[in-house]
Each structure stands twice: as structure tokens, then as C-alpha cells.
Amino acid sequence: MSMMNALVYRGPGQVVVEQRPKPTIQLPTDAIVRLQKTTICGTDLHILKGDVPTCPNGRILGHEGVGVVESVGSSVASFKPGDEVIIACITSCATCEFCRRGMPSHCKEGGWTLGHTIDGTQAEYVRIPHAESSLHSANVKGVNKEALVMISDALPTGFECGTLNGNIQPGSTVAVIGGGPVGLSALLTAQFYSPSTLIMIDLDENRLATAKSLGATHSIKSGPDTVKAVMEITGGRGVDTVMEAVGIPKTFELCQDIVAVGGTIANLGVHGTKADIHLEKLWSMNLTIRTRLVDAVTIPRLIKIVEAGRIDPQVLITHPFKFSDISQAYSTFGAAAQNNVLKVVINFD
Asked: Are 248 and 229 in contact (CB under 8 A)?
């Protein structure tokens, strides 16, 4: 039996590199991909904290990556061994009710499975179910693989859950709460729609500076005067779109304090505890509140945008690591603020 190295979850607070059997084709729709690059997501940290009970002890983590097809099942026609591919964070059968409605995040045979309910991409090899609709060609001219890794998850999450759900219009006012990789992805993609004002709100000065360098018109260090600062910028109106990219009750309530009449709150954050909706003051404001799990349906569109040079998602990567140092990468990413980390990339080459 062929073996490989893999990063394995061993219960709350514990991940170890182990030798595991190399995956094999199980169904005609499968592909086996040899990883070239992967990354660590905030969701992986949630698993490590024990916040995702559906992820069992012994699971290989990771749901993002770029690699080379090693083998394919008999039903896979679009990819062949040797093809370089982007692995979508969401597995899509493309035929169930939810996939046909554009919501493969709720696919009856897929969704968020990699690194969750099946073994993921933080390993030398990974099995990709429904490869025809869950892989994308990485043959993208003039774009390096680090940038392509960001198209697996971070960039479509910011675009779909933030920018598109936020209904950003030309000339509108927009605020993003949370300057991590997903919040910055929302900030980058919001600029496709030419808002007049684009505010980043965060506690971390380094992330605020990064946001300004990536197109934010204003930055606000979160604190007791945050609402006042937003109102001063917007002439007392509030913002037309506010995107929550933190995932805690305090920031979701901040959204409600700064959204304008007729505005939209788009939630990107992963919330583990209840957050209040203050209908006593919102009921008459003609608001829209939208939630979404990334569907990764915009990956083909984002590939074209990145290839055209409209945005460079590689700016989100601050710390590269070899796979042999993945435990250190977890420690570094787990203390992102102290280490000035946005996104890490794990190299297998």
C-alpha cells in the first residue's frame, strides 16, 4: 500500500503529521490530485478548537489547494492525469436540487466535505469526488499558483457572501467589518462595482493599513467611537452595504448600528453563538439581511478576472511554509494578529 504524509486532526487542540494510505479512486466520478500548494483557513482553526463536532478525530484537514491530477475515474472526461487544477472548497454533484438552484454548498452529495466529512487537502494527495464539477483548470496565463490557491475559497467567499449578497451599487457607501483574508477579499471584489466610499473597520492597525493599500477610502480602528466615525464619514446616513466578516455577536450588532435606511447587511462571518437582531429599531428601516455559505460558483468568473489582472489575490498571502513545517504554520496562523498574518500558503514542491 502506497503511503503519504498528511496533517491529521486528533481532537481539540491537536493536529499531527502522520503517514496515511494514499487515496484511491472509489467512484467513477472521482479524481486523485497530487497537491502542490494548500493553505489554512479560519474554519480549520474552528475545527481545532473543537467547534465543529461533525469533524471526527482522524480527519485529514484542509479544503483549498492547487495540484496535478494523478488519476481519474471512468466518468471524468474534462480532466486527465497531468492536468494542473484548482480545487474548489465546495464539492458539487451539479445535478441535485440545491446544485441546480446555484447552492452547491448544500449539495446532497457534497457541499463542505473536504477536510470535514471526508479527508482534505492538507496532505500530499487528495481524493476529489464529483471531479467534473469540483475542479477547475489551473492553466491560467500569467498567474502564479499562490494566487490561484486564493481562488479555492477566500476570494469567492468574499465575492459571493459579501459583495454579491451585499448588492453593492455604483456610487454607494460600503463598510467591511473585519480585515482578515475574507474581509479583504470582499474589499477587493467590492471595487468591481465602483462604490464611492469603502470603509474598513478592524482592531488591527496592520490590517487597516493593508486595507488602505488595497483600495479602502477610509479605515477605522474599532472602538467605542466606531459608529460616530462611520456617521461622520457618511454625513449621518450610515452605509448602504455593511459586510460582517468576523463572526461574533458584537460585530453583527455593529452592522445594525451603521447600516443606512434601505441598506443591506451581508454576513460572511462564521457565528458560533447567538447574535441579537434589534427589530425594535430596524423594523421600519427597509433593510435586507443576507446570510450565505460560499458556493464557489463564481470561481470560473474569478479566474478570468484574475487572469485579466483586475485583482491580484496573492497580496493576501503573507507567510509561506513548507509542508514539513505545517505545525508551525498552524501556530503562526492561530496567532495572526501578533504575527501580522493574513494568509499562509503551504508548499509541497
From this structure: no
